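Posting this for the archive.
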Amino acid sequence: MSRKSYHKPVVLQVLPSLVSGGVERGTVDTAKFLTESGWVALVASSGGPMVKDVESGGAKHFTLSLKDKNPITILINSFKLAKLIRKYKVDIVHARSRAPAWSAYLASKMTRCKFVTTFHGAYGTGRLKNYYNSVMTKGDIVIAVSDFIREHINSVYKIPKNKIRTVHRGVDLKEFDIKSVDEIRLIRVRNKCYIPEDKFIITLPGRLTSWKGHEILLQAVAKLKRDDIRCLLVGDTKQHERYFRQFIRLAQKLGLSDKVTFTGPIKDMPALYMLSDLVVSPSTRPEAFGRISIEAQAMRRPIIATDIGGYKETIIDGKTGFLIPPGDVDALEEKILFVMNLSEEKRAAMGRAARKNIESNFSLAQMKEAVMTIYKSLLL
């Protein structure tokens, strides 16, 4: 009996950590559907709160200092990964970030294991940076999370187009469904975030960093001069304390202290979307994909985002949401007011169109099928 006839395929994903974010969520989703498909899913990272999500989905996690960019640590990690690959008979190692990708690439060479990379961002350019980034082009197959990223890879690194596959991220249509969120969950999130029932709720989920558009939103809300608005800024304030303090000062300066709530990280995002009247993501730099968009649309919520990067691929402007120029406070103010003035009937119609868009193009099942097709092609 040949090895292929009885050996369950084994995939090892490597990433810096499992704290929060789109990279981490993609890793968890992939690990889960691998185990559901009868494969063996392994994940290596420096750890974090989402380790429990990996393990609850049936995968095994290994803790290594993979977020360390020190060349010596990267080399040491390559030997540790090679040991894991040999011990667990790994067929494919899948790298999702640059520092761990170097370790994974070296380990794959030592073990003759198939190597896959996923480009989750448009990394900075420059001679040294391009060399460091180039490890992400060394996969037997390179996955781009959007056509925007695919074009970036091709134009900057000049690798063959037939080596790159676009695999859009997918959302779990059962988890992100208005029918799946009960009243108890809504009450719990409403109380945690102090969400008033008599206000128009605008939610901006995203890391508290300079380019996610928090300042643009605050300026737009200040210009509206409306007392019936409450802004929820969702993100880890402890991990990004500098920007948290900066945005607190800006809210005070603009007279918005009583209109802005910093919620901290929220586990139950479907419930939070349900409690929101509008979701915004006015990023001033291109999002590689922008998971917020597909989650909000799956929950039938209107979204306003910038007309750059991955959002151009997920939002149908004027039908499922709105696209505005980056950094344009006036345009954001205008679209917020437009959504506030929509009738319930028109808002419901936009919600139905948004849900249909996600069901047709950005479901977790579609992402699963695309990734599994890539994995299987490497095992032929």
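The chain has two domains: 3-170+363-379, 178-361. The chain has a mean pLDDT of 94.
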